[in-house]
Design a protein that fits this description.
About 70% of the residues lie in helices and about 5% in strands. It has about 130 residues and is mainly α.
């Protein structure tokens, strides 16, 4: 980290790259925790595990200050992936192939409307039962 004459701190490129990766991985974790396991972004968890793992190994060689933080985030990504990969339709272990990916992208685009769809169908069913 270097200090300019204005007092503003600039991060070196490596530190910035690590910090951005940590933040993006945390956002994927947040998305995973805030969604149902069926729609959890297992593919993104897997992607960020690979990215952070590579950065961790590089940081070890550089003895970078963020190496332990990245290992912690990588461990958390692995735990989240382990808990959702068998349930998620976005999992890489899915045997359905590209059809699932196309269908799931359509499904995800509808997810904001799903609660209202279910509540309106329940109201309609209730009115027909009376």
């Amino acid at each position: 980290v270097s200090t300019q004459s204005t007092g503003k701190r600039d991060l070196d490129e490596t530190t910035r790259r690590y910090l951005v990766a940590i933040i993006r991985a945390q956002l994927v974790l947040k998305e995973t925790y805030n969604t149902t396991p069926l729609l959890a972004p297992a593919h993104e968890l897997s992607r960020w595990i690979k990215i952070l793992n590579a950065y961790c190994r590089e940081a070890m060689l550089l003895d970078h200050v963020f190496q332990h933080t990245m290992w912690d985030v990588t461990d958390e990504l692995i735990q989240a992936h382990t808990s959702v990969y068998k349930k998620s339709i976005f999992s890489e272990c899915s045997s359905y192939g590209s059809r699932v990916r196309v269908s799931t992208s359509s499904l995800v685009s509808l997810t904001p409307d799903i609660p209202s769809i279910f509540s309106s169908s329940t109201r309609q069913q209730g009115s027909t039962l009376r």
